[in-house]
Write a structure and sequence with these properties.
Blueprint lengths: L4 E6 L5 H10 L3 E6 L4 H7 L3 E4 L25 E4 L1 H9 L3 E17 L12 E14 L5 E5 L7 E4 L4 E4 L11 H12 L8 H16 L4 E4 L4 H14 L3 E7 L7 H9 L8 E6 L1 H8 L5 H23 L4 E3 L4 H6 L26 E3 L7 H10 L4 H4 L19 H20 L8 E15 L2 E14 L7 E2 L4 H14 L3 E6 L13
Parallel strand pairs: 1-2, 1-3, 3-4, 4-9, 10-11, 10-13, 11-12, 13-14, 16-18
Antiparallel strand pairs: 5-6, 5-7, 7-8, 8-9, 15-16, 16-17
The protein binds xanthosine-5'-monophosphate.
Length: about 525
């Protein structure tokens, strides 16, 4: 491996990506591999350190994920976390048993600060525990370096062999000094230099793209979302006008979004590239006429995107490369990297167009986590409003308008949503809420405005906090803010006479309305 790397061996724990992210936050590059990865492959990667994740199994059971003893004899430092810690002890001759009570939640841990792992950590520190099994006897050569009231071995080490076992989860933020412990491992034990920095990543990626593309032509579908925007900027910095970006305005974008994307990437913007904006709004409205069923709407929007993109690609002719905005969690979740269950159902619109004539795919963000993509974007001078853009679904407002989509309904949602976003920002809540937007219920009801009876639409406001988008809680927005948003929407958006706030969590609701 060219870069200094720590690898995470995934035993099916729910925090595998978090471990890798925390290590990268320490400026050390980290990749996730399945526990089934062959030892020869690991040796060939020559990692600076290996971290074994948690997992749902009991290591003493016959079919549980395991690794051969050889892993601990490579001379490469190993840190086992939770299941990984138990497995290390089990494989090396210690004993793991089922405890009578599960230790779960924030727990006071007493650590030995002489251990490299706990340098500069408070002697009593709060850590996140989640285990049924416990290490009842440590393996020969190890010594206990942390314990809790219920758990005799909260951490053990064999400093000579550079083997460390931690029962709790340093990667979880509830472990107050967890990042410090991981940093102690990668610097104090593995001797990393800390060369994973966004500026040098951007620089080396640009160089690598330039070498790979040569004088070839590159095509990129630009959605205006964070990933495709960052990818496009990186490509444009590398190869300038050899890059053509096609931006399809499907008429289901947020208010002014099409113009905002054009302002950044178009001819007036700061970047050197060929930018094609396709105003396909009417095409989409025509296709969506009379269609109410959510999945059918998604399908139409996705397919239409492919058709429009293909038409543009045909005009451009053969290209050498097609850009994909794949990021590292996509790689891990599609099962290539880790071992955790494939949890994310792939919502993404489209897939690869059939008729685009290209030779190879180029994925400049394949190694990056989302927060790193954002850092790379800022590094290359993308405006903050683009870099910190909220997740926006491919089918856009099409799935925020319940039932049939019409141009009139799109206008209502765009205007209501713009007001909502503006007021959330005015209240200083824009960085703290996970995802928020206005949607249009398909409901009309009677109201009164001035002296007149109205029969208008109800707008629904949604705001959720979520870690992984698989579950979510409705955000608690101060009443005054909601009230102000309601007043402004009623007064400023024609066609609306009621505003509702959706309190539903996910499950049973979803984040979007369809
Ligand atoms: P749900 O509504 O499934 O949303 O709770 C979870 C996350 O996924 C986004 N989402 C989509 N993204 N195409 C996308 O690209 C889709 O069809 C789609 N549906 C939902 C949603 O915005 C949220 O962030």
């Amino acid at each position: 491996m060219k870069r200094e790397t720590v690898i995470v061996l995934d035993f099916g724990g729910q925090y595998n990506q978090l471990v890798a992210r925390r290590v990268r936050e320490c400026n050390v590059y980290c990749e996730i591999y399945s526990y089934k990865t062959d030892i020869e492959k690991i040796k060939a990667m020559n990692p600076k350190g290996i971290i074994l994740t948690g997992g749902p199994n009991s290591c003493y059971e016959a079919d549980s994920p395991t690794y051969s003893k050889e892993l601990f004899e490579l001379g490469i430092p190993v840190l086992g976390l939770c299941y990984g810690a138990q497995l290390m002890q089990h494989v090396l001759g210690g004993k793991v048993e089922r405890a009578s009570v599960r230790e779960y939640g924030k727990t006071e841990v007493m650590v030995n600060t002489d251990s490299v792992l706990f340098q500069e950590v408070a002697p009593t520190t709060i850590c996140w525990m989640s285990h049924f099994d416990y290490i009842s006897q440590i393996a020969p050569g190890f010594e206990i370096v942390a314990h809790t009231a219920d758990c005799p071995v909260a951490a053990a080490e064999n400093a000579d062999q550079k083997l460390y076992a931690i029962q709790f989860h340093p990667e979880v933020l509830h472990t107050k000094e967890g990042t410090k412990m991981l940093s102690n491992f990668v610097y104090g034990v593995c001797g990393c230099a800390g060369d994973w920095k966004m500026d040098s990543f951007v620089e080396s990626s640009i160089k690598a793209i330039r070498e790979k593309v040569g004088d070839g032509k590159v095509l990129c579908a630009l959605s205006g979302g964070v990933d495709s925007s960052v990818a496009a900027v990186m490509l444009s910095k590398a190869i300038g006008k050899q890059l053509t970006c096609v931006f399809v305005d499907h008429g289901l974008l947020r208010k002014n979004e099409g113009d905002e994307v054009e302002a950044v990437f178009g001819p007036e913007g700061p970047y050197d590239l060929n930018f094609i904006r396709v105003n396909a709004q009417q095409r989409y409205y025509d296709k969506l006429k009379g269609v109410e069923e959510p999945e059918q709407k998604r399908k139409i929007i996705g397919e239409e995107f492919i058709r429009v993109f293909e038409e543009e690609a045909k005009k451009i002719g053969a290209v050498d490369f097609l850009v994909q905005g794949t990021i590292y969690p996509d790689v891990v979740e599609s099962g290539l990297g880790g071992e955790s269950a494939v949890i994310k159902s792939h919502h993404n619109v489209g897939g690869l167009p059939d008729y685009v004539d290209f030779k190879e795919i180029i994925e400049p963000l394949r190694d990056l986590f989302k927060d790193e993509v954002r850092k790379a974007g800022l590094e290359m001078g993308l405006p903050e409003y683009l870099v910190f853009r909220q997740p926006f679904p491919g089918p856009g407002l099409g799935i925020r308008i319940i039932g049939e989509v019409t141009e009139e309904k799109v206008r209502i949602v765009q205007d209501a949503d713009a007001i909502y976003r503006e007021e959330i920002a005015n209240a200083g809540l824009d960085k703290s809420i996970g995802q928020y937007f206005a949607g249009l219920t398909n409901m009309r009801s009677v109201g009164v405005m001035g002296d007149e009876r109205t029969y208008d639409y109800a707008v629904a406001l949604r705001a959720v906090n979520t870690v992984d988008f698989m579950t979510a809680e409705a955000a608690e927005i101060p009443y005054e803010v909601l009230n102000k948003v309601m007043n402004r929407i009623i007064n400023e958006v024609r066609g609306v006479n009621r505003v509702m706030y959706d309190l539903t969590s996910k499950p049973p609701g979803t984040i979007e309305f369809e």
